[in-house]
Amino acid sequence: MLTRFLPYLVLTARPSLIGRRGYNHPVSSSLRDRIKHFLKRLLIIGLASITSLTLIAYAIDYGVFRYRMANNRAFGQVMVQSYDAVAQKSGKTQFIFTPPEAQTCVNSLFPRSGFTPCWYLQKHTEQRTDI
Fold this sequence. Notes:
The chain is of the alpha+beta class. It has helices at 2-12, 15-18, 29-70, 118-123, and strands at 75-87, 93-97, 101-106, 126-130.
């Protein structure tokens, strides 16, 4: 019964009834500007940090990949089960399975030389193709 009248109570409640602290006194414009500046600066620093860490990880991964290429340890193989999902006119789906096959992958964090990373293929051993 109370839930039916709750939106009405929230919309008609006076600010002094909601809470004593912070609702009755507006924030000064200088404090508001300082808070906006701080949040903007925090957002810029956070985005710059994430971008720089990603670029550093990509560069280190590239160096490790080139080192493994020189030692013939850059590539691996994972058994992958692929199947086709054919949509029929009746609304049903027909599945056509192919035998599992070894797919070449790269031992790195990011995709390299047109190959998918092995850590990703090991988690996604079934590949579906919608036709």
